[in-house]
Amino acid sequence: MCLICIPSNNSTSRRTARRRARRSADKRIASLVTREVVKLIPQIVAQVHSLSNSRTPEDVKTEPAFLYKHFKACDPMPFTGEGGVSQLLQWFDAIEVTLRQSGCPEDFQTTCATGVFQSRALDWWTSERNKRGIAAAYALSWNELKRLMREEYCPPHELQKLEEEFWQIKQDKGDNASYTARFKQLSVICPSQVDTPKKAIAKYIRGLPECVGDFVEAAKPATIEEAYQLAAEVNDKRVLSGFFSKNPVKQAHQAIFVDPSGKPTNGSSDDSKENSSKDSSDDSSGNSSKDSSDDASSGPSDEASDDTASSQETQPNRKRKEPSVEEIPKPEPLRSVPVPAKRAYNGSHPQCLRCTYHHPTGAGCRYCAYCNKYGHLTWNCHFGPQH
């Protein structure tokens, strides 16, 4: 056996010694690391607990920042500064609803509200912003902005007009919805006239028609809302019954007759036939009586009357004997249908100054070739050959 292939005892002992040294070094390092980790674990646990206790749920949730596009997505109502106090109050109510729906914060409400200004309102806000400064103008609260807008768009003379209107407010025929809506608006603008529920109910009933106000007053509503609802119900019944229709629609078989006093009366075709038959019978009776009296008075002079009649026919220029005033029968009153009023022109063509008719500017006027006048055509001329 070769000596090279057989390892010596010295080399094996060295290797084993090295291995043991490495193992012991690794054990020492592991023990040192374990000791240090054991010392640091309590500190790490204490720091984690302190951080978890100091954080609140609001800090954990990351809410997105509010932007103007969130407010604009709710389609806010624009404000132009026109329309008076009623339009201003309506805009206040609409914009407050939009601010609440969009979740706008209080410090951003003035910026969002003034972003919908247009026309006159935009000019006013530009002057206020220049006068106060951009930062100070947008730092105004919503209540302060409303106060400034009331001072600008609700001057004293406008409020005086609205107070006078509130004193004299009345319902127009059967339009109870418009009356109630206007009453609510004026109640907000002029609260001094309806400062108590009793005064508000009494004032609302005073403006209703008599046929509606009596029922509401007899019901004795406790609140103004009950008065609104009760008045609406009674008013609808009066409208359905036709109480508010002062001009009844004339049927197709009816006609309007004029009395001798000049008052028009409605009557049917049967009534007109009866009236005409009575008139004809009266006329026939009167004529028959007159004929009988004439026959009795003439007597035997029939031949002479025939001769005179023939002579009058042959001599047309001879004057006839005029009857006395007593013999002239009184004329019956004229019964005719009144001519309806001419409807107003609703077209888009201008009125011509020559023919007084409405026609295109390039078209010809109504010209009569017979009398050489404007305003009618030849076949409508009163002086034409056909007349």
Short structural summary:
The chain has helices at 9-54, 57-60, 68-72, 84-102, 109-114, 119-132, 134-138, 142-153, 156-167, 176-189, 197-206, 210-219, 224-240, 269-298, 302-314; strands at residues 254-258, 264-268. With 387 residues, it is mainly alpha-helical.
Low-confidence spans: 246-314
Strand order of the largest sheet: 1-2
Percent in strands: under 5%
Please state the average pLDDT score. Answer: 75
Give the overall shape: elongated
Question: What distinguishing features does this structure have?
Answer:
single chain, mainly alpha, 15 helices, 2 strands, 56% helix, 3% strand
Give an account of the 3D structure:
With 387 residues, the chain is mainly alpha-helical. The protein has helices at residues 9-54, 57-60, 68-72, 84-102, 109-114, 119-132, 134-138, 142-153, 156-167, 176-189, 197-206, 210-219, 224-240, 269-298, 302-314; strands at residues 254-258, 264-268. α11 (197-206) packs parallel to α13 (224-240). The radius of gyration is 52 Å and the shape is elongated. Mean pLDDT is 75; it is low at 246-314.
